[in-house]
Fold:
Amino acid sequence: MTMKTALITGITGQDGSYLAECLLGEGYRVYGIVRRTSTPNTGRISHILDQISLINADLLDQSSLIKALELAHPDEIYNLGAQSFVPASWDEPTLTGEFTAMGVTRILEAMRQVCPGAHFYQASSSEMFGKVMEVPQTETTPLYPRSPYGVAKVYGHWITINYRESYDLFACSGILFNHESPRRGFEFVTRKITSNVAKIKSGCLDHLEIGNLSSKRDWGYAGDYVKAMHLMLNQEKPDDYVIATGETHEVREFCDIAFDIAGYKLSWEGDGLNEKGIDRRTGKVLVSVNKQWYRPAEVDLLIGNSQKARTALGWKPSVDFHQLVEMMVENDLREEAHIAL
Ligand code: NDP
Ligand code: GDP
Structure:
């Protein structure tokens, strides 16, 4: 059997690094697109750098994408590159649109011109459901995004479907709910909690400052979710799939478990902006709320129904919520101990 080739945009990100590992494990030749930076940002893929090929290109630059596809001749293209942090999308709304929305058209257009027979994956998001129109959300739930990021992802989702229908391309959109890991960016709430718990434990930080403790998310493990991307591109026909655990948890609950794993028992006092997480043993404040981390508009109850993917792809998550928090806290405790040495 001939070796298959995959090209990943966003290979330096959380999902890109897990997907590259997954595809190498399946025997693929893996190319990754990286944009020029003044300092190296390949930390998440440093352990596989000798097994993959990196190409300089940018989702903002059409000709660079065409050249990348001409060089790689991929059988599969995974478009994971994006401005992916929701709060930053209010700070930089037009740039977010350029990366996260127009970038999808650019890579689809490059594929149409260079390798129309390739299979294409678009990283769509549960943030497209925003002010949710039904609970739980499925592939047919109407979209109502609540941030410039969510709006850009709706564009990316629909242009993928449009290119599939207009040009008969094998293009799939994976509507993924939040997924985390020890490689999650530090600004996302899960990694912010686990990295700060580790700093508190080592004595480098006094307490964690957080935003809306009552926010709820359907959180899964990134290592499980990249497998679904690969499965989608290896079906008879292109289609769109929701990938989720089907469980939702509050930020407060994430804090409870994370602190518990590090040896603290929290009790909660006050409410809203005055709510505090107190160490039951010492009475010390370990969590306080800061309005700075609240958002101009929040999404509602995000909870996904991934029945279609479970039936058609045979996909299911292998890591549950508690195991996910444990994996992240233990990683950050280890990293913090290493820094302290
Ligand atoms: P990350 O933020 O960890 O990674 C984003 C990647 O996109 C990085 O490699 C980044 O490169 C790259 N990138 C950003 N701008 C450009 C550009 N102009 N040209 C080329 N590459 C660019 O995100 P995740 O890995 O968590 O997510 C992967 C994708 O899945 C994203 O599209 C995200 O929006 C989407 N998604 C993620 C979810 C999650 O919970 N993680 C949920 C649903 C969807 P650099 O290192 O140079 O910054
Ligand atoms: P998102 O779902 O992609 O926006 O992922 P995040 O991890 O950034 O945010 C998840 C939820 O956590 C949102 O509802 C935030 O409002 C909430 N949240 C509460 N405190 C914080 C915080 O300090 N930082 C972040 N990033 N989110 C927070």
Q: What stands out?
A: The mean pLDDT is 96. Residues 86, 178, 187-190, 192, 210-212, 215, 217, 251, 293, 295, 298 surround guanosine-5'-diphosphate (ligand 2) (CB under 6 Å). The chain is about 40% helix and 20% strand. The CA atoms of residues 86 and 118 lie 30 Å apart.
